[in-house]
Specification:
Blueprint (H helix, E strand, L loop, with lengths): L1 H6 L11 H6 L11 H8 L8 H14 L3 H32 L15 H11 L4 H4 L5 H21 L5 H20 L8 H13 L1 H11 L2 H31 L8 H20 L24 H18 L5 H13 L21 H14 L5 H25 L3 H11 L4 H16 L3 H17 L5 H12 L6 H14 L3 H14 L12 H8 L4 H14 L3 H14 L4 H13 L3 H13 L9 H10 L6
Helix pairs in contact: 3-4, 5-6, 5-8, 6-16, 8-9, 10-15, 13-14, 14-15, 15-16, 18-19, 19-20, 19-21, 20-21, 21-22, 21-23, 22-24, 23-25, 24-25, 25-26, 26-27, 27-28, 27-29
Length: about 625
């Protein structure tokens, strides 16, 4: 009830960032029946592929509640509360398992320990840092993945502490873990961590197989040799299996303004920042955008890099040191870091996002609850004051933050004010000023220009500000400056493809094709010329559309469509673009080949282009042998 009260105003907020392509622009989730084809279409509608269960949930949301944004957010909140309840149940079983183990948790006899599950789940549900997961609709993917991980852990613990025979336990644990991992992974890729969480609990809480290994090590030398050989083979196998994945990640840094080394260093500071905002939340620091974080160039650049590394190493040392005598402390610390092992390490993602803490923050809640409730040094009155103070802080910050998220404009202005060096925060505020500016508010247009011009120097990788300034100049009294076009061309040359660049360039293309546009297409040839030099199918497609639909240079545009299809290995969307160009230029032989290729693909790969293929089938009727 407290959580619903805190979140209530935030449920009336709008759509943000990825919600555009996941919800607003996604026609396939707008299902009107529960037929198999409709459900499959919705499930496979994520642009990057995968996450079928999450996308299916959005389709069902639309079927039952229509376009109502409140309903999407309310379902997120319901799933959040359900996940909290499952974590409560899991914590009860964890405490029970720890008390039944060979070495009891320290102070397990303390009367307050029985309240650890309730306090842990309550803290976790009310953590303000988790709000950006609940009210950011597309992050339902994170919530669902966490829910199925939590269910998998609960099933494992239930079977593990049951009185079943060992072989039955093994079958049920492997079966439930496999099913829940599949469901979690189908919600979001970090659902793959469920088996790692099960192994973590098994190693830290039960420790039976660790004790067996220790016993082997104290025994015959032959066991040591065998263990050494197995370890070496395991390491070599891991390198062989993971090296292609690691190489792909290194290649992924080409479009980033930081290197792999810089990202890993910066992540130490990111983790300590997350911990500070879980323990002492502050709405001046919490934000949807954290692209203003300083990149760590070395251990002393900035100095807080070394401090953060020492803090995290200290926590890991504590986790190792308490693994035998106080397992709950060890488990809590390792839980947090395991949850960050994918998104906060070497994979070339954006530096910081609060939703990465959604499941890991349970470890912090468990640790704090246990330390407060099991301490011998606090009287009951002191313990009650500490708990109430932490609740008051979380509830007040969460409630205030939900009010900020209750309106897109309030949220944009708040984040821009407290994050003046965040390009995305500043750009988001400028978008609202832009809307007012093109509606005739001259002061809003001037302020939007000021914010966007300043943002050009802040944002060194994306062309969003330049593109918005160009559109603003065509729809208000603001004059178009050649430097904006030059800046966009230079950034594209340096950075190439990114999701933000893609949307910004797409917006300019759509505007140039409108009859109301007064912009001279020739001015933008330097921008689209840079797109041609990148080996990315989406950028080549933008250049192809510019040449065919705007400058009418059909031959050049056609060659770019061909190149995009070739580079993408004939992915359906890009082969369809080529098919359209072939039809437009009446190259029916090539069009028939493209159509036959698309027809030969499994239906799940062409699900999103079935309507276009139906039109092509009509146009090619009688023209293919």
């Amino acid at each position: 009830m407290i959580a619903v009260w805190c979140y209530w105003k935030g449920l009336f907020g709008g759509l943000y960032y990825d919600d555009s392509h996941v919800i607003r622009e996604n026609k396939l989730i707008r299902i009107e029946s529960l037929g198999w084809d409709s459900l499959v279409s919705a499930a496979n509608s994520f642009l990057a592929g995968g996450r079928q269960l999450s996308m299916l949930s959005f389709g069902l949301n639309f079927y039952f509640f229509g376009e109502l944004i409140f309903a999407f957010k309310a379902v997120n909140l319901a799933l959040h509360l359900l996940t909290g309840f499952v974590l409560f149940v899991s914590t009860k079983m964890l405490i029970s398992a720890l008390n039944q183990s060979d070495t009891n948790i320290a102070d397990s006899g303390h009367a307050g320990v029985k309240w650890v599950p309730l306090l842990t789940a309550s803290f976790w549900i009310l953590y303000p840092i988790n709000l950006s997961t609940v009210l950011y609709i597309s992050q339902r993917m994170t919530i669902l993945a966490s829910l199925f991980i939590a269910i998998g852990i609960a099933c494992y613990l239930f079977v593990r502490i049951s009185g079943l025979a060992n072989y039955k336990k093994l079958v049920l644990i492997f079966g439930s873990t496999a099913v829940c991992t599949l469901l979690a992974y189908s919600s979001k890729e970090n659902g793959i961590l469920l088996p790692a969480y099960v192994l973590l609990i098994e190693a830290v809480v039960f420790q039976q197989w660790l004790n067996r290994i220790r016993g082997m090590w104290d025994g015959s030398h032959i066991y040591k040799v065998i263990a050494g050989v197995i370890l070496v083979l395991a390491v070599l196998s891991a390198i062989e299996i993971l090296s292609p994945f690691v190489i792909r990640q290194i290649d992924g840094y080409a479009g980033r303004e930081f290197t792999l080394y810089e990202r890993v260093l910066t992540q130490f500071r990111a983790l300590t920042f997350y911990l500070s905002q879980i323990l002492v939340p502050n709405n001046a620091e919490l934000s949807m955008w954290h692209d203003d974080i300083e990149i760590s160039k070395g251990l002393f650049q900035p100095f807080t890099t070394l401090v953060s590394i020492l803090v995290i190493l200290g926590l890991l040392i504590i986790a190792m040191g308490t693994a035998s005598r106080n397992r709950i402390i060890s488990l809590s610390i390792l839980w947090f870091f395991l949850g960050h092992s994918l998104e906060s390490t070497f994979i070339p993602l954006e530096m910081i996002h609060e939703h990465r803490n959604y499941f890991p923050s349970y470890g912090v809640a468990l640790l704090i609850s246990y330390l407060v409730l099991s301490s011998k040094y606090f009287r009951k009155e002191v313990t009650a004051i500490i708990i109430l103070s932490m609740f008051a802080l979380n509830v007040s910050v969460l409630h205030a933050r939900a009010k900020i998220w209750s309106h897109e404009q309030i949220k944009a202005v708040h984040e821009a004010n407290y994050h003046p060096y965040s390009p995305l925060a500043q750009f988001t505020m400028a978008r609202y000023l832009y809307g007012a500016g093109i509606d005739g508010d001259s002061k809003a247009a001037e302020l939007a220009e000021k914010v966007l011009v300043e943002n050009i120097s802040l944002d060194r990788t994306t062309v969003a500000s330049e593109m918005l300034l160009i559109l603003l100049s065509d729809q208000s009294h603001i004059d178009l400056q050649p430097t904006w076009i030059a800046s966009a061309a230079q950034k594209i040359k340096k950075t190439g493809y990114s999701a933000i660049n893609s949307r910004a360039i797409s917006g300019l293309l759509e505007h140039l094709q409108k009859d109301t546009s007064k912009l001279d297409p020739a001015q933008f040839e330097p921008v689209f010329a840079e797109l041609e030099d990148h080996r990315h199918p989406q950028l080549l497609t933008f250049a192809a559309v510019f040449n065919t639909e705007i400058t009418r240079n059909y031959d050049k545009g056609f060659s770019l469509f061909e190149k995009a299809a070739q580079i993408s290995n004939n992915r359906p969307a890009f082969r369809l673009n080529l098919l359209r160009a072939q039809l437009k230029m009446r190259r029916f032989k090539g069009a028939c080949e493209s159509f036959e290729y698309l027809e030969s693909l499994p239906q799940k790969k062409t699900l999103m282009i079935q309507k276009e293929m139906g039109q092509a089938r009509e146009w090619l009727d009688g023209k293919c042998a």
